[in-house]
Protein backbone atom coordinates (compact mmCIF):
# COMPACT_ATOMS: atom_id res chain seq x y z
CA UNK A 1 0.00 0.00 0.00
CA UNK A 2 1.00 3.60 -0.51
CA UNK A 3 -0.05 6.21 2.01
CA UNK A 4 0.17 9.95 1.34
CA UNK A 5 -0.09 11.92 4.55
CA UNK A 6 0.38 15.38 5.92
CA UNK A 7 0.94 16.13 9.60
CA UNK A 8 0.89 19.63 11.02
CA UNK A 9 0.99 21.06 14.53
CA UNK A 10 -1.85 23.33 15.70
CA UNK A 11 0.42 26.36 15.74
CA UNK A 12 3.62 27.49 14.15
CA UNK A 13 6.69 29.38 15.20
CA UNK A 14 6.81 33.19 15.45
CA UNK A 15 6.48 33.44 11.64
CA UNK A 16 3.68 30.85 11.43
CA UNK A 17 6.08 28.24 10.09
CA UNK A 18 5.71 24.57 10.94
CA UNK A 19 8.86 23.21 9.30
CA UNK A 20 10.61 22.27 12.54
CA UNK A 21 7.72 20.09 13.73
CA UNK A 22 7.15 18.61 10.27
CA UNK A 23 10.86 17.78 10.03
CA UNK A 24 10.49 15.64 13.15
CA UNK A 25 7.74 13.65 11.42
CA UNK A 26 9.81 13.25 8.25
CA UNK A 27 12.77 12.12 10.35
CA UNK A 28 10.61 9.28 11.71
CA UNK A 29 9.53 8.26 8.20
CA UNK A 30 13.07 8.23 6.84
CA UNK A 31 14.34 6.24 9.82
CA UNK A 32 11.67 3.59 9.16
CA UNK A 33 13.56 2.21 6.17
CA UNK A 34 10.36 2.01 4.12
CA UNK A 35 10.32 3.53 0.62
CA UNK A 36 9.26 7.16 0.99
CA UNK A 37 9.36 10.60 -0.56
CA UNK A 38 8.44 14.04 0.69
CA UNK A 39 7.15 16.93 -1.40
CA UNK A 40 5.79 20.37 -0.55
CA UNK A 41 2.42 19.05 0.62
CA UNK A 42 2.67 15.36 1.56
CA UNK A 43 4.96 12.55 2.56
CA UNK A 44 4.39 9.27 0.72
CA UNK A 45 5.36 5.94 2.24
CA UNK A 46 5.01 2.40 0.89
CA UNK A 47 4.76 -0.90 2.73
CA UNK A 48 2.38 -3.31 4.39
CA UNK A 49 -0.65 -1.94 6.27
CA UNK A 50 0.62 -2.51 9.82
CA UNK A 51 4.13 -1.19 9.20
CA UNK A 52 2.96 1.92 7.33
CA UNK A 53 0.32 2.78 9.92
CA UNK A 54 2.84 2.27 12.73
CA UNK A 55 5.17 4.80 11.07
CA UNK A 56 2.31 7.28 10.59
CA UNK A 57 1.45 6.96 14.30
CA UNK A 58 5.08 7.48 15.30
CA UNK A 59 5.23 10.58 13.08
CA UNK A 60 2.05 11.96 14.65
CA UNK A 61 3.51 11.28 18.09
CA UNK A 62 6.70 13.15 17.12
CA UNK A 63 4.71 16.24 16.15
CA UNK A 64 2.50 15.81 19.21
CA UNK A 65 5.60 16.04 21.38
CA UNK A 66 6.01 19.69 20.33
CA UNK A 67 2.37 20.70 19.92
CA UNK A 68 -0.75 20.13 22.05
CA UNK A 69 -2.84 19.53 18.91
CA UNK A 70 -1.99 17.77 15.65
CA UNK A 71 -3.75 17.66 12.29
CA UNK A 72 -3.43 14.56 10.09
CA UNK A 73 -4.59 14.19 6.47
CA UNK A 74 -4.18 10.70 5.04
CA UNK A 75 -4.94 9.08 1.69
CA UNK A 76 -4.19 5.41 0.97
CA UNK A 77 -3.86 3.35 -2.20
CA UNK A 78 -4.45 -0.24 -1.10
CA UNK A 79 -3.48 -2.74 -3.81
CA UNK A 80 -2.48 -6.13 -2.39
CA UNK A 81 0.27 -7.99 -4.21
CA UNK A 82 1.96 -4.90 -5.64
CA UNK A 83 5.22 -3.39 -4.43
CA UNK A 84 7.49 -0.71 -5.82
CA UNK A 85 4.49 1.37 -6.82
CA UNK A 86 5.80 4.57 -5.26
CA UNK A 87 7.92 5.06 -8.36
CA UNK A 88 6.22 2.69 -10.81
CA UNK A 89 2.98 4.68 -10.84
CA UNK A 90 4.84 7.85 -11.80
CA UNK A 91 6.90 5.99 -14.42
CA UNK A 92 3.70 4.74 -16.09
CA UNK A 93 2.34 8.28 -16.31
CA UNK A 94 5.64 9.58 -17.71
CA UNK A 95 5.56 6.82 -20.33
CA UNK A 96 2.05 7.84 -21.37
CA UNK A 97 3.18 11.46 -21.65
CA UNK A 98 6.12 10.43 -23.84
CA UNK A 99 3.90 8.49 -26.27
UniProtKB/TrEMBL annotation:
- For this protein, the parts annotated as crossing the membrane are none
- Annotated ranges, domain Thiamine-binding protein: 3-94
Q: Please indicate which superkingdom the organism of origin belongs to.
A: Bacteria
Q: Which GO terms describe its cellular component?
A: cytosol
Alphabetized InterPro entries for the sequence: MTH1187/YkoF-like, Thiamine_BP, UPF0045_domain
A Pfam family that this protein carries is Thiamine_BP
Q: Which family would the database say this protein is a member of? A: Belongs to the UPF0045 family.
Indicate what this protein is called per its UniProt record: Thiamine-binding protein
Q: Which organism is it from?
A: Kribbella capetownensis
